[in-house]
Write a structure and sequence with these properties.
4 domains; 4-stranded mixed beta sheet; about 350 residues; about 15% strand
Length: about 350
């Protein structure tokens, strides 16, 4: 298709599962042969990373072939990011319904009112409607004289007494019961739920797990870790964490130029695409480098001795996969905040 960058060829090993598929395209092959195939001839389940042009923003994007096919399955539009997926959804709704969101349709609003009236006797749900008081609030006030049941002192005291009688603890909650309830969910049920969640994520944001999406990953990083400002020689300020600031100081002292270093995740992705690797759990994981040196095609991963040793196997798998992809790779591991590097 036009959105797939033309001329891409990939080395594929022939096995029982793909032999007939490639023969159908005219490739001469037998088991265990290694052949070069065009991107449009890859199998549907192939994890090979291809270069695709986003239908929304027009930017090139590196994505596993099977994810690309899932992304375009419903509406034949490829969206490369969370932002583009939102626009894709709006375009699809405009094409099908003439509005950006189904909730803007009068028939949708009427259908919701009809269902609510049939089920609950009111035309609205628990969300507050402007100018009206929620039915649940009215009922709560009529029964207990408060907005929330635990604002009623009589009920709070009764709850405390029950916990004291049964558990000798007025603040008791039952973690064992909570764990038991979770464990009692059937394995099959959990598989169905997980599969549905992954399918929804693929459709909405292009990946199975939210943290594999760069926009969401960056938001998580900002929430989970303390980021700090780093001023580049040009005066531009970037966000870094951990020992990345010390590593950058060392690179600049060694003579590297600012324009030769990519630090922001989005800049690195636009330059080299996404990097995916298979871990020992059999699942595909995404690797986001800390620094990329353009002139040396080198990925820099900055760690403390603690974080390196904590996930040593995973770190070494990442390194080997990057080397297999043709990148140069270097760990910069610090002992402490004074910037001592492990040799």
């Amino acid at each position: 298709m036009d959105r797939i960058v033309p001329g891409q060829e990939f080395k594929i090993t022939i096995n029982r599962g793909n032999k007939d598929h490639y023969k159908s395209f005219g490739y001469k092959c037998k088991l265990r042969d290694e052949i070069h195939v065009l991107s449009e001839h890859l199998t549907k389940g192939c994890h090979t990373i291809i270069k695709v042009i986003c239908d929304i923003c027009g930017n090139p994007h590196m994505v596993p072939n099977f994810r690309y096919l899932i992304n375009i399955k419903k509406h034949n539009i490829f969206a490369c990011s969370l932002k583009c997926s939102k626009i894709k959804k709006e375009l699809t709704c405009m094409t099908k319904y003439g509005v950006k969101h189904p909730m803007l349709l009068d028939e949708t609003k009427e259908k919701i009112k009809e269902v609510m009236l049939n089920k609950f006797g009111v035309p609205h749900n628990w969300s507050k409607i402007e100018g009206e008081e929620r039915t649940c609030d009215i009922t709560m006030k009529e029964m207990f004289g408060v907005d929330n049941v635990f604002q009623n002192e009589e009920i709070k005291e009764k709850s405390r007494q029950t916990k004291i009688e049964n558990h000798d603890n007025p603040s008791f909650n039952n973690p064992d019961k909570i764990s038991e309830t979770k464990l009692n969910k059937s394995e099959e049920e959990n598989k169905i739920i997980n599969k549905k969640r992954q399918e929804t994520n693929l459709e909405r944001i292009g990946v199975e797990f939210p943290s594999q999406n760069l926009e969401i990953f960056n938001k998580q990083q900002k929430s989970a870790f303390k980021l700090k400002d780093y001023t580049l020689p040009s005066g531009n300020i970037v966000k870094v964490q951990g020992f990345e600031n010390i590593s950058l100081d060392l690179l600049f002292k060694q003579g590297y130029k600012e324009e030769d270093l990519l630090i922001e995740d989005i800049d690195i992705e636009q330059k080299i695409g996404q990097i995916w690797y298979i871990y020992s759990d059999g699942r595909e994981h995404r690797y986001i480098p800390d620094i990329y040196i353009i002139s040396e095609n080198k990925l820099i991963e900055v760690k403390s001795t603690w974080t390196f040793d904590l996930h040593k196997e995973r770190n070494l798998i990442k390194e080997q996969h990057c080397l297999d992809l043709g990148f140069n790779f270097e760990f910069v591991v610090f002992k402490n905040k004074n910037g001592l590097i492990v040799e």
